[in-house]
Amino acid sequence: MDTRGNSNVEFHNEVNEALARRESSFDQVNSALQAVLTKLQALRTIRNPNPNSSEINPFAPEGLS
Predict the structure, then answer these.
(1) Contact 28, 36 (CB under 8 A)
(2) How far apart are the first and last CA of the chain?
(3) With contact defined as beta carbons under 8 Å apart, do 44 and 58 qualify?
(4) Apex CA 51: angle with CA 57 and CA 43, to 5°?
(5) CB-based contacts of 48: which residues, under 8 Å, 6+ apart?
(6) Residue 62 above 80 pLDDT?
(7) Distance between CA 44 and CA 58 in Å, rounded?
(8) Alpha-carbon distance 58 to 50, whole Å?
(9) Phi-psi region at 42: left, alpha or beta (left = phi > 0; alpha = psi -120 to 50)
């Protein structure tokens, strides 16, 4: 019974460690995506400095937005 208990504890620890690594990875991806979003918003502001104008798709080909 002790062997099974130790195995369960070891498995539980391994799962927790894996989850912590995944959480860290997701945090890094989230940070990178936030940086990209910030840059895209800055580009949008440069392209369309008038915030009162209608929404423009910054990714549409010229003349279609």
Answers:
(1) no
(2) 69
(3) yes
(4) 50
(5) 56, 58
(6) no
(7) 6
(8) 14
(9) alpha
Interval 9-50: pLDDT, tens:
999 999 999 999 999 999 999 999 999 999 999 998 888 776
d(CA 17, CA 25): 12
In angstroms, the CA 58 to CA 45 distance is 10
C-alpha pair distances (Å), 56 with each of 4, 21, 46, 47:
62, 39, 12, 9
Per-residue DSSP letter, 3: H
